[in-house]
Amino acid sequence: MLGSGGYPLTSDTPGDSYGSSGVHLDQMEALKERIKAFASVTHGPEVLNAQGGFAGLYQLAGYKEPVLVASADGVGTKLKIAGHLGHFESVGQDLVSLNVNDILTKGAKPIFFLDYVAFSDLDEQRMDSLIRGIAWGCREAGCALIGGETAQMPGLYRPDDMDLAGFVVGVAERDAIIDGGEVADGDVLVGFPSSGLHTNGFSLVRQVFNIDEDPAALFQSYGELQHQLGEELLIRHRCYYPMLAPVFGLVKGLAHITGGGIPGKMSSIVPHDLAAQFDTGSWFKPAIFDLIQSVGQITWDEMYRVFNMGLGMVAISREQDVSAIQQAVSDAVVVGRIVPRRGEDQVLLQEA
Hints:
This protein has helices at about 25-40, 80-85, 90-105, 125-140, 200-210, 230-235, 240-245, 260-265, 285-295, 300-305, 320-330; strands at about 45-50, 55-60, 65-75, 110-120, 145-150, 160-175, 190-195, 220, 225-230, 255, 275-280, 310-315, 335-340, 345-350. It folds into two domains: about 20-175, CATH 3.30.1330.10; about 190-200 and about 210-215 and about 235-350, Alpha-Beta Complex (Phosphoribosyl-aminoimidazole Synthetase, Chain A, domain 2), CATH 3.90.650. The chain is α+β, with helices and mostly antiparallel strands and about 350 residues long. Helices cover about 30% and strands about 25% of the residues.
């Protein structure tokens, strides 16, 4: 049988096919149908034509002067830890949390999310776990998973590797955007604890514990952790939107403490003539940080530049608003103050 142009549509003789090249269309289509099912649990009436292809539709309503706020990020080499342990739900949730945390620093409500997953060999159980985690993360944050890209690219990745990225869009009223513009001398730094490493510093962690050469290190138990190293490393990146949204009006500035640590992230929200002075003894630091520093013999300056060191978010607020924030967020703690800048450093880490 010939198609247009005289090319055969079927053949009884063996030859090349997409499947023989490593791309399995039927399996990929089945996976995409399962992804649609996971995504549907995150949808509300704002999601239009949810079964349609090519693009997701979201109807924005209820805002006077809406400003869209967007972010894109990935979980970094924490993905390799998940691969060694065969657990992907948590990194799926992490992917949503870290992106949502970035846009909430502007006072934005997350409204929809898209993901990008690429791999060489399709592992259906691994993919189902990952997408389930992404869907759970979206439900926690109250945003809809409305699309994404799932790509099988044989030859580009090693058999067990994958690439993962997320994209979130949120919305804020123009006059309610948090931009740090009103930060003043005497304002208070309010910290919100992290659950552990979150999703930053894993390249250094893998080096310190020699995980790439000996993944069995992930199964070693440490008394100070009270569980195995791998369990600690996969603890979820905390999502701060549900707890912080009610206090947006009490906050002048917000920093999500990720790559660059406290020094790198706080300098982006403090006016150039002011400095953020932290009392490093004022908050609890999970045991994993001391363990990494001790095993790797890493300087404390480097630790604070790489890791969150126990603070996942830091807010700047007026002193008279601190008690209201602490009433709304039970584990919020005062960690420092805004002071006049007297030198080159804009972030001061001191222990009282």
